[in-house]
Amino acid sequence: MDTDRAILGALHLFSPSLPIGAFAFSQGLEAAIESGHVAGAVALETWCDNVLRDSLQTLDCHYLRKAYQAETNDAWAVVNEQILASRETAELLSEDLLLGSSLKKWAENLEIDTPNVVENSVVALYGWLARKLEVPEEWAVTAFLWSWLENQITVAAKAVPLGQNVLQKVLMSLKPRILECLTQSRLTKFDTAFSTAPNLAILSAQHETQYSRLFRS
Q: Domain range holding 102?
């Protein structure tokens, strides 16, 4: 029963349908599509693979783990501050804060205690809530990565567009990368975290002034 409860907790917390507004953000993908970097299934798979490996694995997963392991509110607040400071563009920071604010409201509506800080990173708050809901750390990281990938596929369905069968093949092909990111993220030293995806930052900055767009980032 404990395992079943943890599975349900992970599915609930990291569901793309959680009412925090994640569907409104592309996390740089729309700018990549607009610029021509992503125009088909192969390019989409390459984009997602690179962001998973070069940004989420070494940055977001690192801080999600640190937030999960934080023993006190003060320790968690330090992690929260660090990940917000790591956001390279105004859009990526705004996305993190807006989703964090919505996730905090969701938790409070369910009477789940959250740290008392003014600005919440959604990644750090995911780590805190996963521990509160007794979701194992490894499951939380896996579910976070899968949720991110599902959102990218949803963005591509709207903005490229690509057929559902093609998109499902992209999802299938990237499952091994998610498992690899899960394993490698355990090896990131707890005093270092980094993103080596400069093109993501450049495209995110360009997206701020994109003439017409569907997504907020």
A: 2-206
